[in-house]
Design a protein that fits this description.
There is one protein chain. It contains 16 helices and 24 strands. By secondary structure, the chain is of the alpha/beta class. Among the domains are: about 10-70 and about 190-245, Rossmann fold, CATH 3.40.50; about 255-475, no CATH class. Helix 6 runs antiparallel to helix 7, helix 10 packs antiparallel against helix 16 (about 455-465) and helix 15 packs antiparallel against helix 16 (about 455-465). The termini are far apart.
Length: about 500
């Protein structure tokens, strides 16, 4: 078998070898760290497994092996034009949060959008990007000191982000990025994390770009809303699907994962599951049997719910206990990007917003009004350069009211919903240190008896919800809200000045 850099379990080792064979067909020999002419297209393969099965570890090790073999890693930040015959790897995730989870493990992941659209750099600053990626001498750029260059180099060494490195040198995106273009030339190899979130359109786009595509996904999660309960890898031939099984040493003593995997028992009822959670909470403080929603956590970690009506009620309760005014947002209120409302003639501006992290589903914290009417200063959670200013349309939904209340708005720009609570469907791809799950909603789902892809819906909802918790799970069993311990704060997010997005609200 292949000589492995770490001690894998048997199923991980078998999967590693299968992927190695697929890559060898694509002209990348991991055994000898050699690049060869492709013998054909590697095609698509899926590596699936539940939480704790070691998918992320395997992805990280495969990335290291490919990089050691001389494959260029394309991050979506910058692409050199000097190596036309290069072999490439891109590591993708559907959301900023999912990509940031990988980056924290040293894997240079980016979003699918950032691969579909690539940045065009100002020629002067392209020299800086070339130097950071090891392809040139230190550039001489007016206004950039040796100290600033050293900061940029140190940042890039840790994070492998060109925009982040340039920001550490005191530059803004508008200084070095002149525009965006749709990718025309294909790449070689693509790794896609959280592939259970892909819809058919995204999947087909990726297959056009990558002749060799490896999907990492969890079959126990919720399928995309428009996919009729199925995931893109469900229809793949069995010989193109590799399954990992739990549990590995690093996860062997994890009560949250134990609960998640207990849901696979077809005889388990909702009442049995809740009793199991209560029992675990008595012996392990990583699981909490909550009598109320902890409002202090909602500013950074939304309550996870099933029903939209519950989400709206919790959001309004959050705003009420914090004394938020009816006609304005307070600094520190959480938001969720709901898309971009711009006409087609503003396509360039749309790309600029999306490239900076304001894609649908992005978690954002409101930092205050911008300098122009309708603009907001925002912190995009999980983005590499998180602080931006953008034309915003903020919708505050009210219980039993069809039309949302909009405290202020630009005529066009990025649209946001409040983020103190989110549906479990929209939480996929994200993780938080402490996660609150609103159990009364899941009880309703269990009582309705709905089934999705052969499994009770409440079990899929519960599985996704509790596996969003990295360290601590709070299972909230009562429809109550705690009082805040203090006002909302943003001091922890003011690490750098906001970069201005050039999005004008007036028509051209």
């Amino acid at each position: 078998m292949t000589t492995l850099p770490i001690q894998f379990s048997d199923d991980q080792a078998a999967a590693y070898d299968s992927v190695t064979e697929m890559l060898r067909l694509a002209g990348v020999d991991l055994d000898d760290s050699l690049l060869q002419a492709p013998k054909g297209e590697g095609g698509v393969m899926a590596l699936i497994g539940k939480a704790g099965s070691g998918k992320t570890l395997l992805l990280a090790e495969l990335y290291k092996a490919l990089e050691q073999s001389g494959v260029d890693v394309v991050s979506g930040d910058y692409e050199s034009r000097k190596k036309g015959d290069r072999r490439t790897l891109a590591i993708l995730a559907p959301t900023n949060k999912a990509a940031s989870v990988l980056r924290l493990r040293g894997v240079p992941a980016t979003t699918i959008h950032r691969i579909l659209y690539t940045p065009m750099y100002d020629p002067e600053y392209e020299k800086l990007a070339e130097w950071l990626t090891g392809r040139g001498d230190p550039p001489e750029i007016e206004g950039l000191t040796d100290e600033a260059l050293a900061r940029a180099a140190a940042f890039y060494e840790r994070n492998k982000s060109i925009p982040g490195a340039m920001a550490s040198a005191g530059l803004r995106g508008s200084d070095f990025i002149t525009g965006w273009k749709r990718r025309e030339e294909p790449l070689d190899i693509g790794f896609v994390d959280e592939s259970s979130m892909l819809d058919e359109r995204q999947y087909n786009d990726l297959k056009e770009i990558f002749p060799t595509l490896l999907l990492f996904g969890d079959p126990a999660q919720l399928a995309p809303v428009n996919q009729s309960g199925s995931m893109v890898f469900d229809a793949m031939p069995e010989n193109r699907k590799l399954e990992l099984h739990r549990i590995h040493r690093q996860d062997a003593d994890n009560p949250i994962l134990d609960l998640a995997h207990a849901l696979a028992d077809p005889q388990l009822t909702f009442q049995d599951f809740e009793q199991m959670i209560e029992d675990v909470s008595k012996r392990d403080d990583r699981v909490v049997w909550g009598q109320r929603v902890e409002v202090d956590l909602m500013a950074r970690s939304p309550v996870l719910v099933w029903r939209n009506a519950t989400r709206i009620k919790l959001i309004n309760a959050f705003r009420t206990v914090h004394g938020a005014p009816e006609d304005a947002l307070m600094e520190g209120e959480p938001l969720i990007c709901d898309g971009i409302e711009l006409p087609m003639k503003h396509r360039k501006k749309r790309l600029d917003l999306e490239a900076r992290g304001l894609i649908k589903g992005a978690q954002v914290v409101y930092l205050g009004p911008g300098r122009k009417p309708g603009f907001s200063r925002l912190h995009v959670m999980g983005a590499e350069d998180p602080q931006v200013s953008a034309a915003s349309i903020v919708k505050i939904e009210k219980p039993d009211e069809e039309e949302p209340f909009i405290p202020f708005a630009a005529r066009m720009g990025a649209t946001f919903l409040h983020g103190a609570a989110v549906t479990i469907h929209k939480a996929q791809g994200s993780q938080w240190a402490t996660t609150q799950v609103f159990a009364p909603d899941l009880f309703v789902a269990a009582r309705m008896g709905r089934v999705e892809a052969g499994q009770p819906l409440w079990k899929r909802l519960a599985y996704v919800a509790i596996t969003r918790a990295q360290e601590r799970l709070i299972w909230v069993v009562r429809n109550r809200l705690a009082k805040p311990s203090g006002p909302l704060v943003v001091d922890d997010l003011r690490a750098a000045p906001a970069a201005t997005l050039k999005l004008e609200v007036e028509g051209e």
